[in-house]
Amino acid sequence: MDWKIKTADKGLNGQLSVPADKSISHRSVMLGSICRGECAISNFLFSGDCLSTLGAFRALGADISTHGDTVTIKGRGLRGLKAPAGELDLGNSGTTMRIISGILAGQPFQTVLTGDESLSKRPMDRVMEPLSMMGAEIEPLEGGEHAPFRITGRVPLKAIEYKTPMASAQVKSCVLAAGLYAEGRTSVTEPFQSRDHTERMMEYFCADISRKGLTTEIRGLDELVPRDLVIPGDISSASFFIVGALIVEGSRLVIRNVGMNPTRTGIVDVLKRMGADLKVLDVNKEIEPAGDIEVRSSSLKGTVVEEREIPLLIDEIPILALAAARAQGDTLIKGTGELKVKETDRVRSVTENLSRLGISIEEKEDSLVIHGRSGANISAAELDSFGDHRIAMSCAIAGLVSDGECLIRNTSCADISYPNFLRDLQTLAG
User: Fold this and answer.
1) Residue tagged active-site, from 315, 384, 388, 424
2) CB 260 within 8 A of CB 290
3) How many Å apart are CA 370 and CA 351, to the nearest integer?
4) Three-state DSSP class for 26?
5) DSSP result, 292-332
6) What phi and psi, each to the nearest 5 degrees, are found at residue 139?
7) Smallest Cα–Cα separation from 222: which of 58, 34, 27, 26?
8) Helices and strands (H and E) in the chain: how many
């Protein structure tokens, strides 16, 4: 499927509710399935990746039903999962593959994890290493450090003190999940803070977990306690419309009930630093805080994004690069190495698409430099998602400020996180 996006002459105006947070949706199914008892997850994200997680835990024996936007899970307890009838095909979901590996490492059976062509290229050694240290057997079936691979669990696992080589919420979550099945205390230390949805949800489900600085510790236990949960809107999905409203003249937009977890609001902090007219309103104090975001078209200026900030806005870099292109002056984004091992090489994808639009962008050793020109025309062009949902949606927003009509190829991947993105964009643009 392709999109044709033309200039937005009247701005983006109105109110919007974006889809539920993808990261929290994944984790709610995983932890709910290993609780002993029933929990209801409201405002669940029924997107491609999250459906992979639902399917995996149904195959592992969890009783999962859906009604409207609510998922009801009758969990089997920490040690009640069963061996699946065949391979677990996790589609395109790296989050599912990495975190579920930690749960499967503590089970008394073997499981083979596989995925689509894109997922099979993403590095999995980062979870294979700590799980092997804890006693699980990990066997890549085609060699190398990628899926498909077989996990043979160990009961119980060995507790470890693990230092991650990169700040990765998926790696941290995998080790913490395995720590539920270990004897003693397992700790994970990161070089920088990454998103903390797993820690918050584990605490909510009564795990014995504690945090000090960049180190998180968890103790193995008998059972988790099921509790109901309401998932807020995904700030990563909101970021496309936030940037769209900032760079399209005449915009005033309110986005309702957006997750305001402090480990996810890096995009808000950077855009404010760039001069964005952006207000966060009425933040609640739930386990996952949420609030409304009001944004108006603004004159932006270039900035420097430090490496330590990258884990707090890793999924928003493609759309942030577009904001930088419409800012006055240069923007330097440091520490972009992790962008090369996402759904696609996002450094290459961003660089190629922005170059086609006539934007000056340079890839350096481990950074990007965008030479912004506030108010300058962006050339209409044929763009490509490269099969990456966030690239597809970023290209669509770029089309709103082009000097004609942009054709964006291969956009069905947007269903991974935001199935109704194009409809919402057309509504706001009139």
Assistant:
1) 315
2) yes
3) 9
4) helix
5) EEEEE----B--EE-GGGGGGSGGGHHHHHHHHHTSBEEEE
6) -130, 105
7) 34
8) 12, 25
The token duo for 125 is: 């050694």
C-alpha 80: how far from its chain's center? 28
- Is 315 noted as a catalytic residue in this protein? yes
Residue with the two structure tokens 């996790």: 90
Q: What's the whole-number mean pLDDT along residues 52-73?
A: 98
Would you mind telling me the total number of residues written for the chain in this entry?
430
Q: Which residues pair with 17 in a beta bridge?
A: 256
CA pair distance 248, 399, nearest whole angstrom: 10
Mapped onto helix, strand or coil, the DSSP state of residue 224 is strand
Summarised one tens digit per residue, pLDDT across range 197-227 is 999 999 999 999 999 999 999 999 999 999 9
pLDDT in tens, 308-352: 999 999 999 999 999 999 999 999 999 998 888 788 899 999 999
Rounded-to-integer distance, Cα 410 and Cα 390, Å:
12
Helix (H) or strand (E) holding 103: helix 94-104
Cβ-proximal residues to 320 (8 Å cutoff; 6+ apart), any chain: 239, 243, 267, 270, 271, 305, 313, 333
The share of the chain scoring above pLDDT 70, in percent, equals 100
- Of the candidates 424, 389, 430, the residue with the CA atom closest to the CA atom of residue 408: 389
Q: Rg of the chain over CA atoms, in angstroms? A: 21
What CA–CA distances, in Å, run from 292 to 34, 107, 260?
33, 41, 9
Hey, what are 241's tokens? 């419309």
The 3-state DSSP class for residue 411 equals: coil
Contacts of residue 244, defined as CB under 8 A and 6 or more positions apart, other chains included, come to 8, 12, 251, 253, 397, 400, 425, 428
The 10 Å CB-count burial string (b at 16+, else e) for 307-330 is bebbbbbbbbbbbbbbbbbbbeeb
Residues 6+ apart with CB under 8 A from 54: 29, 64, 71
Q: What share of the chain is helix, strand, coil (3-state, %, to 5)?
A: 35, 30, 40
Distance between CA 335 and CA 365 in Å, rounded? 9
Q: What confidence tens digit (pLDDT) does each residue in 384-419 have?
A: 999 999 999 999 999 999 999 999 999 999 999 999
